[in-house]
Amino acid sequence: MFNLNWANIKSAVVYGLMTLAALFVLSVAQSIQDAGTVFGLDWKGIIDRGVVATIPAIVVVVSLFKNILTTDKGKFLGAVTVIPDKE
What is the pTM of this model? Predict the structure, then answer.
């Protein structure tokens, strides 16, 4: 507990990138629905939306925080198993 390794950091970044991709797709879909067409989308507006940048960053921080509070045996706060046994 209270330590991070390179795998924890890579895992947090992957979660952030996956969230970024999902939010971008959802943002495009919402823009298509609002505009009623695929043509003429405001790509600057889609990319500039704060949610597309903010939520993935929050996911990375939460993932790192979870990893800091997880023991080497995969127990969050030493009580709840969050990582399956690797043995």
Answer: 0.74
